[in-house]
Amino acid sequence: QVQLVESGGGLVQAGGSLRLSCAVSGRTFSRAAMGWFRQAPGKERETVAAISWSGGTTYYTDSVKGRFTISRDNAKNTVYLQMNSLKPEDTAVYYCAVAKGPFIATIPQTADFGSWGQGTQVTVSS
User: Fold this and answer.
1) 74 near 30, Cβ under 8 Å?
2) CA atoms of 67 and 84, how far apart (whole Å)
3) Which residue, 28, 31, 24, is CA-closest to 97?
4) Closest to 78 in 3D by CA, of 31, 23, 7
5) How many Cβ atoms are within 10 Å of 88's Cβ, its own excluded?
6) SS3 at position 107
7) For 9-25, how does the pLDDT look when each residue is reduced to its tens digit (9 = 90+)?
8) Residue 8 carries which DSSP code?
9) Taking every pair of C-alpha atoms in the chain, what is the biggest distance, in angstroms?
10) 9, CA 20 to 30 Å: which among 20, 68, 92, 112?
11) Is 97 exposed, middle or buried (CB count within 10 Å of its CB: 0-12, 13-18, 19+)?
């Protein structure tokens, strides 16, 4: 059974930075693509960033390009999301997820991912 544990969320002022981590256990992490998602109150869950099994391919939603960086350490079974220049509109619960395969689609969707973490709250104050 796959287990994902996110950490690193919190309260930060606009312009600040946070680094989210997601530790994965229970399956072969290095063979699966990974993704970060977020859901704000009253809104649908959206794909923030995704990374292929090797780390060679990444995806970012337009609103975070140039500010967020997704990375992974297959030796540690961990995926990261470095978030810089945070804005109040980045406030949401952030989730990591394990993809159903090793690669990511051109625009990854939630349906492409099969196992999810419990989420970590990120709040950006203005």
Assistant:
1) yes
2) 5
3) 24
4) 23
5) 11
6) coil
7) 999 999 999 999 999 99
8) -
9) 40
10) 112
11) buried
Structure tokens at 4: 């994902």
State the DSSP code for 9. Answer: -
**DSSP string spanning 17-83?**
-EEEEEEEESS-GGGS-EEEEEE-TTS--EEEEEE-TTS--EEE-GGGTTTEEEEEETTTTEEEEEE
Query: Which string of b and e fits 45-60 if b means at least 16 CB within 10 Å?
Result: bebbbbbbbebeeebb
Q: What is the pLDDT of residue 26?
A: 77
Amino acid residing at 82: Q
- CA 34 to CA 17: how far, in whole Å? 21
The pLDDT tens digits for 49-89 are 999 999 999 999 999 999 999 999 999 999 999 999 999 99
Residue 70 token pair: 């997704």
Q: What average pLDDT score do residues 109-119 get? A: 95
